[in-house]
From TrEMBL:
Protein name, as recorded: EFMT2 methyltransferase
CDD domains according to UniProt: AdoMet_MTases
Keywords assigned by UniProt, alphabetized: Cytoplasm, Methyltransferase, Nucleus, S-adenosyl-L-methionine, Transferase
Native source species: Chloroceryle aenea (American pygmy kingfisher)
GO CC annotations on file: cytoplasm
Residue ranges of every copy of the Methyltransferase domain listed in the record: 56-185
Length: 210
C-alpha cells in the first residue's frame, strides 16, 4: 500500500477530537466503520457459535466504542475497548455513559506496545485497525508483524479473532495471520459488480488462535 496519513496517530487524534466535539455539541457518535451491518455481522456470528455472554472480548482500536455498546445490548458482559488515541477513549466513554453501559472497560493503549494485562481474551475484534496500521508511513511491514505478535499475546489459545478489512483480500489476510492462527470462516459481506466482475469491497474473516 502507499503510505497514507490514515496510518498516523496524528490523523486519528485530530479526527477523534473533532468527533468528540461534535458529540458534545449534538450527540452524534460519529462514523461507524464499515456501517452498522458490520457490527450486526459480528454479533450474529458470536450468537450462532453460542459464544458465552461472559466471554472476555477485546475491541482493538475501539474508536467511538459503538461496537462495544451494541455487544452490551446483546447481552455480552465482559467487554474491553482500547485505542491509542486519548480522544477516541474520551468519546467512547461519553457514548458508554449516554447508553448507560457502565460495565464496559475502556483504556488508552497502543496495541503495538501492549501492557502486560492485555492478555487472556477469548475474543478479539478488529474493524479497520489493521487496515490503518498497514498504511503507516513509518515501517508498516514491521508494525503488521508486531500486530500479529501482540494478537498472539492478547488472545487465549483457541480464542477467536474476527477481522473486518477493506484493504486486504481473504488470501492476503490468510498470509498475514499464518503464524499462530487458522481460518475458521469467511463471513458474507456486500458484493459489488464492476466491468462484469463481481467482488467484495470488504473482507470479514474469523480466525482461531492455535
Amino acid at each position: 500500500f502507499s503510505p497514507s496519513v490514515l496510518g498516523t496517530r496524528e490523523h486519528w487524534d485530530a479526527a477523534y477530537e473533532r468527533e468528540l466535539q461534535t458529540f458534545q455539541d449534538i450527540g452524534d457518535v460519529g462514523e461507524i466503520w464499515f456501517g452498522e451491518e458490520s457490527m450486526a455481522r459480528i454479533i450474529r456470528w458470536l450468537e450462532k457459535q453460542k459464544v458465552p455472554l461472559d466471554s472476555s472480548v477485546l475491541d482493538i482500536g475501539t474508536g467511538n466504542g459503538v461496537l462495544l455498546t451494541e455487544l452490551a445490548k446483546s447481552g455480552y458482559t465482559n467487554l474491553t475497548g482500547i485505542d491509542y488515541s486519548p480522544s477516541a477513549i474520551q468519546l467512547s466513554e461519553k457514548v458508554r455513559e449516554k447508553e448507560g453501559m457502565s460495565d464496559i472497560k475502556l483504556k488508552v493503549e497502543d496495541f503495538l506496545a501492549p501492557s502486560a494485562e492485555l492478555a487472556g481474551f477469548e475474543v478479539c475484534i478488529d474493524k479497520g485497525t489493521f487496515d490503518a496500521i498497514s498504511l503507516d508511513p513509518d515501517n508498516a511491514v514491521g508494525k503488521r508483524e508486531q500486530y500479529v505478535r501482540s494478537l498472539c499475546s492478547a488472545l487465549k489459545p483457541e480464542g477467536f479473532f474476527l477481522i473486518t478489512s477493506c484493504n486486504w483480500t481473504k488470501e492476503e489476510l490468510l498470509n498475514e495471520f499464518r503464524e499462530g492462527f487458522e481460518i475458521l470462516e469467511e463471513l458474507p459481506t456486500p458484493k459489488f459488480c464492476f466491468g462484469g466482475r463481481i467482488g467484495n469491497s470488504v473482507t470479514a474473516l474469523v480466525f482461531q488462535r492455535k
